[in-house]
Design goal:
single chain, 497 residues, 73% helix, mainly alpha, disordered N terminus
Length: 497
Amino acid sequence: MAGQKEMGSGVEWKIRVADGSSETLAPQAAGLAGRVWLGLKNMIAGFVLKVWRFLEKAWDLGADDPRKVIHCLKVGIALTVVSLFYYMRPLYDGVGGNAMWAVMTVVVVFENTVGATLYKCLNRVFGTILAGLLAVGVHWVAVHSGEKFEPLIIGVSVFILASAATFSRFIPSVKARFDYGTMIFILTFSLVAVSGYRVDKLFDLAHQRLSTIIIGTSLCIIVGMVVCPIWAGRELYSLINRNMDKLANSLEGYAAEYFNQSEEEAHKKLLDYKCILNSKATEESMANFARWEPAHGRFNFRHPWKQYLKIGAAMRSCAYCIEALNGCINSANQGPEFIKKHLSSSCLKVSSDSSSVIKELAKIIKTMTKSSTIDLLVGEMNNAVEDLQNDLKTLSGLFNPEDETPENNNETQKTSLKTTTEIPLLGVISVVTFASLLIEIASRIEAVVEEVEKLANLAEFQVMDQCKSKQNQASTEIVPADDQNDEDNTIKTLEKV
C-alpha cells in the first residue's frame, strides 16, 4: 500500500514494505524547464569546445609557419593605409568617389609571395590600361558615327573583343602568364564601354579608376617587397631541395624495410615520397610567379626557373617506381628468405648508392656549386647495378642443381635446393620485381643528374676550388712555436726589404 502526503509545494511518496517499515522517495525536480536548461548548457559547452579547438588549430598553424601571420599583418597594413583615401578629405577629392577601387584592388591582388603579387598587380594595371584605351577609342568612334550607330558599334565591339579575349585564355602560354590580366581586360572594357553610353565624362571616369588601381597595386608591391618578403623563387628552390631529401630517405628506407633491416626512424620516412607525387601543381605555380620577381639573393633576374620543373618531373618518375616498391612490400606473395638473402647485399648497395647520388644532387642545388664527386658516385651506383644484375642472372642456379659448379655444390645449397621445389612462383616474381625496380630507379636517377647539370650550367654555378679549401685547412692548423717564430722573422725581413 502507498500513502500520499502534501508538504508545501512538493509531493512526498511513502512505500510500505511487508515487514512494516516504510521508505520515502524524494520528489523529481527534473521538469520541462530543467531539461531545456540542461540542453542549453550542453549546447553552449559544445560550442565553446569547438571554438577552443579551432583556436588551438589556428595557433598551431601560425606556430608552424609564422610567415602566414606576417602576411595577414601585411594585408592589414596595406588596407589601413589605402583607406586613408576615404578618411582624408584632400586625398578623397583627388581620386573622387572611386577611392573604393583602391581598397578592392588591395584585397584582390595582395598574395602571399612577391611573385604572385607582382603577377596580379602588373596584369591588373596593363589589362586596365589596354582596356581603357580601347574603350575610349571605341567610344570616340561610336560618338562620331551618329546616334543610330553608336549602340550598335559599342555592342559589336564588346562582343568581338570579349569573345577574342576569352578564347585567348584557352591558349596555354597566355593562360600561364596573362590569364588574370585577360579577365581584367574583359571586365574593364565592358564596364567602360557600356557605361560610356550614359556617362558624359568618360575620360575622367577612366582616369580616376586607373589612378586608384595604380595606387592600390603600388602599395601592395611596396609592402610585399619591404616588409618580410616571401619570394616564390626561394620557395620553389627550397621545395626541390626538400623533395630530393625525401626521395633519398624513402628509397633507402624501402630497401631496408623489404629486407627487414629498417629502424623505427627510417620506417617513419617511408611515405615521404608521396609529397613529390603531389607537388606538380605547386611547382608550376611557383615557377610561374618566380618569373615576375626581380633579382633577389643568389637568384638573378634571368634565373632558369623552368629547369626546376624538369628536375621535379624527373624526381616524380623515380617516386612512381618507389610507389611500386611499396606494392611489393605490401604484397601477399612474399618471396622466400633464402632468395632475399641472396639478393639483399646487392639490393641494399644499389639503394644506398642511389640515395647518395640524390643527396649529392640536393647538395649541388643547395650550395649552388658544381660537385667534383657526382661522377664518382654515379659510377659507384652503376657498378652496384651491374652486381645486382649478375646476382639476378645467377638466381636461376638456385633452382637447377645440374647447373651448379663443383665449387658451389655444398651441403647448405643442397638443402636449400630441396626447399625451392615447393616455393610458389609468385613469391619469386615478387623478389625479382623488387630488384628490377631498383635497377629502373637507378636509371631514372641518371635523368635527374642530367637535369641538375643543365641547371648548373644555365645558372652558372661556381666550381668548388679544392686548392682554396686545402689552403683554408692549412691556415687553421696549429703552428708550433719554433716554426711560428721563424715565420715571424721571415715576415719582418721581407717587410724591411
